[in-house]
Amino acid sequence: MHKKFVNHCTIDLTLIPDGPILIKSGKEGADPTKPDMEFVETYHAGGRSIYLPGSSLKGAIRAHAERIVRTVGRDKRDSNNLDRLWANDPLNDKYDYLQNKSSSDIYKLSSFTDQMFGNTSIASRVRIEDAHPDKSQPLKIEERNGVAIDRVFGSVAVGPFNYQVCTAGEFRTKIHLKNFTLAQLGLIGLVLRDLNDGWFGLGFAKSRGLGTVEVKLNQAFVQYPGCILSKDKQEILTFGSQKKWSNTFLLGVGEFLEPDEAKLYTFPTEDHQDTPVAAQEMDLGFGVQLIWEEGRVQDLFERSVRSWSKLLVGTK
Questions:
Q1: N or C: which end of the chain has fewer CB atoms below 10 A?
Q2: CA separation for the pair 280, 278 (Å, rounded)
Q3: How far is CA 222 from the centre of its chain?
Q4: Buried b (16+ CB within 10 A) or exposed e, 94-130
């Protein structure tokens, strides 16, 4: 399904530290004036600054997505439904069952989270950009001291050491999801809800109170690049087929495929939700998009979670 591009969602969001946060640099310098653990840095907007790497964000988001699906599903195949695996065992799964398979079989046999985030045989549908500081909100960076305590004797095992943390500022990023089902989009919404609620954190020393952030949803786009609007702007039409929908429909990938092709990948063919947002043309007059502005992005996730709930009920 990576050979086609039928739908795409972009979520523009801001991460605001709700306390100290540290994404450690992978190297240690020889400068004795710098802390033992430094924040990762990069060149951006004409200067050097700290940032939150997209790979770190994706790892934390994927890990929590797997926690959610293991809570409601299982990490072993159900004998009554061999095609459905919610989340696999990342330490012991060698993916032998995916070797010498067609692309549709690889997708179908992969776990729900692997279908989204990828594995050694299938590419990811989720891409997360690096989160760079918003210059309008100054960063506050400080150094803290710490020691590691021996659990048996209660004495200092390692240290003292010092580390750098960011306690204020805003980091802006985007999450991209392509060729998605609405249930997959709903799972992303649940993960972002839990991140905002402090159920999990980012970076170093999460179990010691670091890494919690506030998630501010700025804007969301859902785009259908192979569609146009009808002349009266009331319907979404596809090129090369007779498919059409209301101009307020949020559509999953299965809606755009022929039934036989959707069945190969186990995509639901009826995967839509009505929304209060009217579709409009994309730039250059080609393609259709729905836009949720700031303050309304929650509505997108609420409707997607309905499809996630429907999937759970249908597989019980």
A1: C
A2: 7
A3: 15
A4: eeeebeeeeeeebbbbbbbbbbbbbbebbebbbebbb
